[in-house]
Each structure stands twice: as structure tokens, then as C-alpha cells.
Amino acid sequence: MQAYVMRSIGETDVIEKDEPEAGPNDAIVRPTKGLVCTSDVHTVGGAIGEREDITLGHEAVGVVESVGSEVEQFEPGDRVAVGAITPDWGSPAAQDGHPSQSNEALGGWKFANVKDGVFAEFFHVNEADANMAHIPSGVSDEAAVYVTDMMSTGFGAAERADIPIGGTVAVFAQGPVGLMATKGAALRGAGQVIAVESVPKRQELAEFYGADEVVDYTEVDTVDAITDLTGGEGVDAAIEALGSNATFKQCIEVTKPGGVVSNVGYHGEGEFVDIPRDAWGVGMAEKDIVTSLCPGGRLRLRRLLRLLDEGKVDPTRMTTHRFDFEDIDDAFQLMDTKEEGIIKPLIDFS
Q1: Do residues 267 and 291 touch, judged by C-beta distance below 8 A?
Q2: Do residues 154 and 294 touch, judged by C-beta distance below 8 A?
Q3: Which end of the chain is more exposed for a tag (fewer CB within 10 A), N or C?
Q4: Do 119 and 55 touch, CB atoms closer than 8 A?
């Protein structure tokens, strides 16, 4: 089969690979639609170290090609969404309520990390009954692919932020995850959602997904603006969706005592992330700092697909570019440069 791989740091290619085989609890899926993520670009750039000919990609939906002998919920021909995070559900971490961290930190992240990813003619899914969900007939593949990562990750950041109904929240950066965090905050009943973003198209989408105010950090001081918008109090919750040391510090600064900083950003550079001591109340202001990795699992996917089926979320507004699988390298290059106003490129495998 054809697979789009990371040959080494900084080098990608389409190569021939053997088709994967399903173990007793596993499934093989033929992808129909996929999405390229900025973290894929980070991987190729060496963020997680050297990889040799590992198939890239972790966001895809498709059709079940085959299943193992112990799989009960799925059969060949089913349309399915597969979580970007595919935990080992029997691990101690999963039993302790943290399946995304199964067996080690970030251990549920397998695709294009410790095993081949989804950008191939077929891909392998471990523990298929737990890590896939049927796509409702009324939901398109293009919409469904967003539940695999962007919706689950962004909504998870809002959930972890513990936003009170009617509360205030600031979401730093309005990339795909930040946009879904903004939507998640609105769905959870936030009374005031403040988006921090400078790119006009992303500002527009932030408002579409529920932002009440948009702060352009290139025009005003972000901390001062958010402080003013909240009557000098600061926000109940701040969501860091960029992975920047600067924005992480600003999240601490704008969060009121007793509030929550929910970090979902990918901090791939630098040895440390700084906490501003005074804004942290010298460690005693009861500001919780929580982190999250995309929640996985069939139940999670089914709930997100229900939102699509009921018309409560339209993630396809984030699809700015479309590529055939044979042109996937162009999509990667564009995600790297962030040119042409790209937000999310859709890959068509048909």
C-alpha cells in the first residue's frame, strides 16, 4: 500500500508499505477523509525525536476493512471515526481516570508516535471496540473527522477549565483547537468568552463559534484589555491553546484568584515554562493549572458525533483547503508556512 511517511527529521515521502493486519481486538480501516495537524508538522521537524519511515497522521475517518476475532461492535463496511488518541484501556492510568496517559505520559498518543499513523491506504486501530465509533448516517465524513481530535481536544480544554455557567473565560489563540475551545466554552454556558487572536479570518471564526469579544494582541496589551473587559476582576478561566511561554504567562496574569488555567497548547520549545510569581500570588492565590491531552474512546466520540448530528456544531467552517491524498505533501508544506490563510487542510483519500 501507499503511505505518507517521515523518513527522518525534516524529510517526508510517499513509500510502499505492507498492509497492516488486525490482531484479535483490532481493526483495519480504509480512510476516506483526514486532516493535517500542526503537531504533524512539529513531528517532522523533530519535536519528538528521530523517526524512520513512520506513517504520519492521526486524524481520519473511514470504512472498516477488517476486524479481529474478538471485535464485537464493528464489522467490515461500517463508517467509523477513530480517535487521534487510542488508549490501552486496561492500563493503570486508564483505570485511574487518565486513559490518554496510558502506561506513560502521553501514552495514549500512538498514531505517528509509536506506531504508524493514518495517512495511508489502510491503517491499524488497537482495541477497536473502545477506540472507534459509528458515524451517524446524517453526518458527513468531512464533519465527522473533526471529532477525532480538534473537537475532542478543544472541548476537553473547556471542560478541564471548569467554567461556571455565566462565568468568564479567555481563550488564547484561535487556531483549530482554540476555536473549538471557544465553542466548548460557549456550549458550557460561559457568560463572557474572550478570544485572543490577530488574524482576521480566525477572529471572524472565533465570533462564529461564540466569542463575545476578540482581543488583537498586536493592537493592545492583552492583559490590560482582558482586565478591562472583566471590570478589573480577571477571568474565571483562561485556556492556553497555542503552546507559547508568553501566552501561558498571560493566562496566569488574567486569571482571578481561585480561577483555572487550562493548558492544551503543545509546548515544543524551551526547557521550561515560566509562571509569573506575583500574578500567581507567590504560589498561594489558589489558581489551578490543569493540562489535558485529547480525550479518546468510543463514548467520547459518540457524544461529539451527536453534536454534529443535531446541528449544534459546524466544524467544517475551519476547512480552508482541500487536497487529494497524492498531494498531501503540499498540505504539509502549507501547514508549516501558515500561508494562504490556512486553518485546516482536508485530505481526500478517494
Answers
A1: no
A2: no
A3: C
A4: yes
The CB-side HSE value for 65 (13 A sphere, CA atoms) comes to: 16
Grid cell listed for 305: 458525533
- Interatomic CA distance for residues 56 and 78, integer angstroms: 23
Q: Residue 50 is placed in which grid cell? A: 528521530
Rounded alpha-carbon distances, angstroms, from residue 239 to 89, 98, 341, 345: 28, 20, 23, 24
Please give the average pLDDT of every successive group of 10 residues along the chain, which has 350 residues: 96 97 98 95 90 97 98 98 97 95 93 97 98 98 98 98 98 98 98 98 98 98 98 98 97 98 92 94 97 97 98 98 97 93 96
Q: What's the per-residue H, E or C state across the chain? A: CEEEEEEECCEEEEEECCCCCCCCCCEEEEEEEEECCHHHHHHHCCCCCCCCCEECCCEEEEEEEEECCCCCCCCCCCEEEECCCCCCCCCHHHHCCCHHHCCCCCCCCCECCCECCCCECCEEECCHHHHEEECCCCCCHHHHHHHHCHHHHHHHHHHHCCCCCCCEEEEECCCHHHHHHHHHHHHCCCCEEEEECCCHHHHHHHHHCCCCEEECCCCCCHHHHHHHHCCCCCEEEEEECCCCHHHHHHHHHHEEEEEEEEECCCCCCCCCCCCCCCCCHHHCCCCEEEECCCCCCHHHHHHHHHHHHCCCCCHHHHEEEEEEHHHHHHHHHHHHHCCCCCCEEEEECC
Pairing of strands 2-8, 54-55: antiparallel
pLDDT at 47: 86
Cβ-Cβ contacts under 8 Å for 228 (sequence gap 6 or more): none
C-alpha cell at 280: 500567581
- Assigned C-alpha cell, 348: 481526500
- d(C-alpha 303, C-alpha 211), whole Å: 23
Q: CB-based burial of residue 180 (10 Å sphere; 0-12 exposed, 13-18 middle, 19+ buried)?
A: buried
